[in-house]
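Deliverable D5.2: sample structural annotation.
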Amino acid sequence: MASDSPPLDASRDPPSSSGSGWRGRLAVAGRVALAAFGGYAVAALATALGAVTLPLSRAEAVSTSMLASFAVMAGAVVFVFAAATLRRAAIGILGTAAILTACLWLAGGFSAGVPA
């Protein structure tokens, strides 16, 4: 059975794309920074929100939220590297952080006397 496509040649250079060179490296560095700092911010906000709102004792709510924060951080990192562009990834992370901040504010997480 004959194939219409040419055989693959490993010695050829891959075709150049818009992400090659210093711009590509800068985009990857931006994604790494966004995944590290933005993922940490989202995980910290989700942890605080869970600690305030979970219907458990304070110690259990904090422990459960801290354990869940590892999954939140991993999900944020996967999202940042799966997004089509760095701009979309940044909008997604910032939007998630804004929503979590608003929910935490509504739950009373920023007040001095958070109920026990």
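Annotation notes: The chain has a mean pLDDT of 87. Helices lie at 22-53, 58-82, 86-106.
The annotation will be released with the project's public dataset once the embargo ends.
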